User: Fold these one by one.
Assistant:
Number 1:
Amino acid sequence: MKVQVHDTLPHTLPEDDAHPYRSGAWRPQHVEYDAWDLNVEGELPGDLNGVYIRNTENPLHPPIERYHPFDGDGMLHSISFEGGEARYANRFVKTDGLIEELDSQESLWAGVAELPASAKAPHQIGARPQMKDAASTDVVVHQGRALASFYMCGDLYRLDPRTLATAGKEDWGGALPADGVSAHPKVDENTGELLFFNYGTEWPYMHYGEVSPTGELTTYQDVELPGSRLPHDMAFTENYAIVNDCPMFWDEEAMAAGLYAPRFHRDMATRFGVIPRGGGDVRWFEADPTYVLHWINAYEETTATGATEIVLDGFFQQNPSPKPRPEATLEENLYRHLDLHSMRSIPYRWRFNLETGQTIEGPLHDEILEFGMINGKYGGRPYRYSYDALPADGWFGFHGIAKHDVQSGEITTYRLPEGVYASETVMAPRDGSAAENDGYLVTFTIDLPNDRSQCVILDAANPAAGPVATISLPERMSSGTHAFWADATTL
Ligand SMILES: [Fe+2]
């Protein structure tokens, strides 16, 4: 392996940092590398061409008071495959907040679990403007550029997908909304469009937008909600976008006092807003109360009576608001909201009948799963396979990958050795791929026993058979959040 250090960012964290989400699998990285001629065990497939990018959180400074793992600065990791060769790079996303804190050498904004009034710097854009827009949640590739985004809404930071060279902020020709963009914008690989939403604390509380394949904002409309909400993800079909109003939102009284305290209302319906692509009236459907972090996919189906039904798959939390344990510390109770086993999140299907306005819903499986990825060419279209993370019990980490056949219900798994964690795993179709599962699963591991990270490539048709190739990386990365596969043809 040939490795070059691009930069090392100065940090002020203690050397013996023992914070549970700044040590172990969450130990932050502060060095930026370029690496090539990578050591490969097995054989790197010649028909795997494109880029796998993952976003991770890497704090540089101790928090003002209380750290939450979603407060760390965004760092992208990219591995690009071309003609049987792989190259790796990692870079911090040079957000406005990161640059200011490099200057001050301390945390200036209030983290998600901190008092908003403790922020020492001016408001940023987003639903909680006292927080730093760390661009650390999600990443997609649109118009050949990687766009890093933040779950509380903010700017979209652009980077070259292969080299991760910074390319400023996305602005869509000056039309990027003042309320910012939420994490989880969706790229429709079949049309090249980007669909997005944002949310906030002021009427209309949500907007929905569309961007053309060449980067023009073509749709931007109000989505009026009954109040401030906490939507995290959206879905789309060929003709509709689907946004959500889950009964988990900031307590209004607390908000009036300047605090953000999420409350789950178990007696309130979950509402789904169906919006025609291209813009138009929002049609609302009601369903059982829950909170959904991530959707898997959605598509349209024609019923026996000729009605159009929207099929939406995602992860239903059976226990969205785990009760605090009296014996636990405040931090421990806080981190229960990162444990998908506490929230008991299972794959689930909703059907919205556009003729009758009725919802039909129910589980697809009873296995605790989340972070489902699909072959992107099937986004918004009928599909069969979801490649999900197997969440570790008790904290926010993934100890394997589950391939879920949503038609038959069959689940096959690939489990990593003890102490090794996966990233959000993408499905990368092979060149000339003819079938939905004809391709590779690509993930980065966080390997504690060997203090290293690797890129693991599995056969998507048979992940249980184990790695096709394993590639060494320069340094163990921090476990993070979302990832994206960009086919070489889109770069
Ligand atoms: Fe997410």
Note: The pocket of fe (ii) ion is lined by residues 137, 183-184, 232-233, 293-294, 482 (CB under 6 Å).
Number 2:
Amino acid sequence: MRRVTIVGCGVVGAMIAYELSQLPDLKICVLDRQPPAQGATGAALGVLMGIISHKVKGRNWRLRETSLRRYETLIPELEDTLGRSLPFNRQGILNLCFDPEELPRWESLQQIRQTQGYPLEIWSAEQTATACPHLNLRGVAAAIYSPQDRQIDPAALTLALVEAAQLRGVRFHFDRQVNGLQPHDSHSLIVETPEESLVSDIVILASGTGSSSLTQSLNQSVPIGPVLGQALQVKLTAPLGQIDFQPVVNGNDIHLVPLGGGSYWIGATVEFPTDADPSWVLGLKLEEERLEAVRQGAIAFCPALAEATVTKTWFGLRPRPQGQPAPVITQLPGHPQVWVASGHYRNGVLLAPATALYLQEKLG
Ligand SMILES: Cc1cc2nc3c(=O)[nH]c(=O)nc-3n(C[C@H](O)[C@H](O)[C@H](O)COP(=O)(O)OP(=O)(O)OC[C@H]3O[C@@H](n4cnc5c(N)ncnc54)[C@H](O)[C@@H]3O)c2cc1C
């Protein structure tokens, strides 16, 4: 049996654990310094922007398409295994287009998607008003509707993956800080924790913004920095618009995510560390006005939200690679037993299945 240690139990680590648990000759252990889904994953909105993204070819599109396809089989598979349903919104994503000059780009995307076998609809303001009477369409040139894009609750998904992987023999240890990695012999490494030193034949770093310091312990630099995102949950007395049509709505990069029962997530800010403040993360001060700007942006395209009660606010740190595109899924130079599966930045929930399937293929 090959001993595999996965460091990090966000959506990426949990997905890798679950997909690898299908390989017969692996003994898999997942370590996290916190309970599952407490990092970026716990802050994410779970919007899976695949078909409606402007990525149409190469690695970026392949990862998206692989993930979207896998989600369609994965969710029923997990629901069957666990005997409960998962919050998976199959009503698509509606993107409001405010700039008429962007329409040719959307029309070109629509044609490309048609050849790829995916529907993408371009609605007039009138069509949009009929489908979504709760939206303020002043200034909206058109709306792009992608019926096959999805949204999932990232924390519920991660917990389900942990449970299903446990049923297949994966061991999880939470509250387990990994301090570093050390070469052991030519085939294995030591994963150092305060409690024990774990000898592993394969180590997978799915540790989000914590990945860089672990690569540094092997004298390798894979810079992955944090990008702050703030979001909020609101509650209305009744759902917005038509009860049987509740897609995710996106306007000016602000998502309105229906949760059922009149509750919605709204987000998120995208806040970069400033050069002037290198200790940005340690001394992190949340700027409430940035979150309020997001709420006001959502009210602008959905005025009924002005009456909603804010029930929760939160933030997370997205892991963003520096000097290379997101995500980083690679063997660590000089250490072929170490894989980095991190830096998924704004699309970790979307890209987790493709990341896990890639590793399943490489380690299979
Ligand atoms: C507000 C917000 C909204 C978002 N919305 C979306 C969205 O709609 N769709 C989407 O696809 N993505 C979204 N994202 C991005 C998404 O959250 C991330 O890309 C994704 O969660 C990354 O997952 P991960 O498992 O790599 O990292 P994380 O969830 O951060 O998990 C990493 C884990 O590693 C652990 N760890 C780190 N270092 C160590 C160590 N040394 N020892 C032990 N454990 C360690 C941490 O405790 C953590 O649990 C959003 C992010 C934010 C902040």
Note: The mean pLDDT is 96.
